[in-house]
Amino acid sequence: RRAKLTISSPPRKQEQESSQDFYDDVENTLPSCYHKVSRVEAEVVLERNSELGNILLRPGSDNKNFSITVRQVVNGVVSVRHYRVRCSDNGYIIDVDQGILQSSLQGVIDHFVKYTNGILKPLDNSQDYEEHLTILKRDNESGEVIIKELPAANTGPSPPSKPGKKALRPSKTSPAPPDRPDDYPERSIPPIPPKVSKDIFGLSTDASQELHEKLMKRRKYIEASESKAKLNP
């Protein structure tokens, strides 16, 4: 009987781990146009930021190599292309024609920019972050939704003062002036009822009293005359 010679291959798990470690190390030295997005997401990112750039670097579908996504619009015609960038012992190979070797990923990007005479512009990853606070607000007149930039708020700590210069002290706020009478709302004052005159038929009180006394004297005089007439028929 012949003895069977078996050659055991190294564990595949170790190969995957070493490749992943190499891939993670490479990510630490990535160019600024690297975006950790998928193939479809790369197309969307370039479409939404077409005024900022039209080429980016992204992870490959196998998580071992890299890919270049290019999106151009010429006379209304949209063109999207993807290029594979393979990792090798000598650097990185752009998988076109016979293969173009570059020593670094930044060299790969520079090759695309230089070869197209600057037509391709890398989409810087820093453009993903806004520099100001903005909100969506509906315009009252047109009804359209607009982007409104909020005023800057100085909430962070003040930067340290330069040597040789005194730090500015915060100005003391003066107390608020006292409220003026105009600051209070107007209060309705109830109307004052008119005084009721005790005049009799348009006469003043003194005249009425004098007339009353005369009438009483007149009445007494008449009663006295009538009594006297009765006594002397």
Automatic annotation (TrEMBL):
Residues 1-22, 150-205 are annotated as: Disordered. SMART domains: SH2. It comes from the Eukaryota. Coiled coil: none annotated. Residues 21-127 form the SH2 domain. One of its GO terms (molecular function) is signaling adaptor activity. Transmembrane segments: none annotated. Pfam families: SH2. Keywords: SH2 domain. InterPro entries: SH2 (IPR000980), SH2_dom_sf (IPR036860), STAP1/STAP2 (IPR039111). Residues 1-21 have a biased composition (Polar residues). The keyword DNA damage does not apply. The keyword Nucleotide-binding does not apply. PANTHER family: SH2 DOMAIN-CONTAINING PROTEIN, SIGNAL-TRANSDUCING ADAPTOR PROTEIN-RELATED. This is Signal-transducing adaptor protein 2-like protein. It comes from Callorhinchus milii (Ghost shark). The lineage of its organism: Eukaryota, Metazoa, Chordata, Craniata, Vertebrata.
